[in-house]
Each structure stands twice: as C-alpha cells, then as structure tokens.
Amino acid sequence: MKTILLTILLASSLLFSENIDYKIIDTTTNQEIGLKGMVEKLSDFSIIFFGEFHDNKILHDLELELLKIYYSKNKNLLISMEMFERDVQPVLDKYLSDEITEEEFLANSRPWPNYETDYKPLIEFAKENELVVVAANIPRRYANMISKQGLNALDSLSMEEKEFVAK
C-alpha cells in the first residue's frame, strides 16, 4: 500500500495577495502545484496523511474540499481524526448512524473548541455519505499519565485501557 505525507505550506493573504489564502508546494520539486496538481499527484496513493494546524480555518476548508474531491472519485473512503479520542469511538459511531442526536454526541465526545467551525463540516459530510470516521487520538488522561510518569505509566493500565493507547 502506498502512503504519502502531504506537506502544505500556508501563507496569509497579507503576505501574498488578497486573493490567495494558501499555496500548495510539491516538496520533491519545491514547485507550487495548486489544488488540481496536488489531487493529480496523490491519485496513485491509497493513504493520505493531511497534517494541519488545529486552529487554521483555511486548512480545515482545504481538508473538506479534498475529502469531497476524493469522495467523487472513490466512495470507499475512511477518515481518521486526531480531534476525537479513541474512547469516544462508540459515541461517534452512534452519531454517524443517527442513533443519537447531535446534542448527545457533543455532550459525550469531548469535541475541541473549534469543532463547530472546523471539524463539524467533515463529520457532517461523512455522516451524509455514510463514511467511517475513526477516533484516532489517545485519551487525554492516558497522554497526561505518560507525559508526567513516562512510558512506565502504561504498566498500571488494564488490558482494556491499553486498547486506547498506540501499540
């Protein structure tokens, strides 16, 4: 399976032009390729990692645009999101399958403060198109344990708790 790590360089409109919100650079050639060029370059890959600054609206809009483009080419997509912690996967699944309301989903999924503006469009697109979304992040409580106590903190976790930590 081919994989690629996509690097997108952004610049504010103040630095370049009022009409340009971002630039997409092919890091192998250092040439600007634009959205169409990026889609063409990524068409041979089955896994795409989209790195982003969590508080950058432009990047989130670009993520959604790419998702829509790739969905139009291949309906068999899966989205993995760092925004959701692994232990909320059942809540996420229930929301995506209309088993719970958005209010219940938000109350039980610990969404980030910018969920409404930046992540909700991705989730709603996935829901409308019946796409799987994977809650990919380590739960904060375990990340905090490891941060404070080191990897030895993992020894104190039950087998069930270890399922939420990367192997």
List the helices and strands and how they pair.
Elements: E1 3-6, E2 9-10, E3 22-23, E4 25-26, E5 31-32, H1 34-42, E6 47-50, H2 57-73, E7 78-85, H3 89-96, H4 102-108, H5 115-128, E8 132-137, H6 140-149, H7 159-162
Parallel strand pairs: 1-6, 7-8
Antiparallel strand pairs: 2-3, 4-5
Helix pairs in contact: 2-5, 3-4
Percent in strands: 15-25%
* Structural category: alpha/beta
Task: Report the span from N to C terminus.
Answer: 20 Å
DSSP E strands, number: 8
SSE succession:
EEEEEHEHEHHHEHH
- Write down the domain tally: 2
**Helix content range of the residues, please?**
40-55%
> If you average the pLDDT, what whole number results?
84
What kind of assembly state do the chains in view correspond to? single chain
What's the shape?
globular
Sheet having the most strands: 2 strands, parallel
Kindly report the spatial arrangement of strands forming the biggest sheet.
1-6
Please count the helical segments. 7
The low-confidence parts are 1-18
Cα-atom radius of gyration: 18 Å
